[in-house]
Amino acid sequence: MTRKKQQQQQQKKLKLWLSHLNKPHKRAHHQKPQQQLTDLRTDNELAETLVAELENVEAQYEAIVNKLPQDCSELSTHVDGLHLIAPAGQHHPLMTHCNANGWTTVQRRFDGSADFNRSWADYAQGFGTPSGEYWIGNEQLHHLTLNNCTQLRIQMQDIYDNNWVAEYKHFYISSRDDGYRLHIGDYSGNASDALNYQQGMQFSAIDDDRDISQTHCAANYEGGWWFSHCQHANLNGRYNLGLTWFDAGRNEWIAVRSSQMLVKRLPSDVCAPSSSNEAAAAAAAAAAAAIAATTTTTATPVVPSTRPTTVVQFVAAAQA
Ligand SMILES: [Ca+2]
């Protein structure tokens, strides 16, 4: 018998058992006790068989999920497009976009079609569609970066069609209990290390202010992010106004039109030892504490561009 036929027969049996068990058992009042006992025994046997079958289905499901790549770098052939992955420690498949170089897309903005002004729970779970505008979810980010061997690449295009890149050799998002805290390190690129300003911050969203500003940054910027006092970088803010990155090189805000955040596992021979997440976390916490101790008001540490763009006005308004 073919595997497909076997599966069809199994499904048929399951359906039959389920329909029997879920049917209300009409037993006549005059039914003899002996008959009632026999019925109960039959029900019990059916239930036991059903549980065994469901366990079998669960085991098959687990086996399929375990065979999925943990991220796009594990795909046998790197083809740009949508792929199913199962991040380490998560026992369910996840559809995401992979590029031809094995990078996993975790965020994408390009037309403002998806609403990014969402709750902390929405950001934890993820939203949008991997083929369009998208946030993969903080829980997924935590699991994708758990291996302590993940790099982050941020690609942006500004409203003047310039391309900007910020890459971090180390990227780790802590657990839900720790507020999905941001840990980054070893920057390279042409966009400036703006994200470092938010190093060690917990994730904030419209309904959950976890920044260290006296204002509510996520509410001001209409998007969830690792805000501090509030930001030097924010790719989840209000589209066309709130997408920004501070380019320290030019002392100017980049007015971001489209952005993409991607992660990729580093080759194992260049991976940091397993304890470095904790070391990075401790360093980040110390840095955050230092910021909190030295700054008591909402800071706009660098005067934005003299060119009055809508982005700058929006940023200035929100920082105030
Ligand atoms: Ca606050």
UniProtKB/TrEMBL annotation:
The keyword Coiled coil applies. It comes from the Eukaryota. InterPro entries: Fibrinogen-like_C (IPR036056), Fibrinogen_a/b/g_C_1 (IPR014716), Fibrinogen_a/b/g_C_dom (IPR002181), Fibrinogen_C-term_domain (IPR050373), Fibrinogen_CS (IPR020837). Residues 37-67 form a coiled coil. Keywords: Coiled coil, Disulfide bond. PROSITE patterns: FIBRINOGEN_C_1, FIBRINOGEN_C_2. This is Protein scabrous. It comes from Drosophila arizonae (Fruit fly).
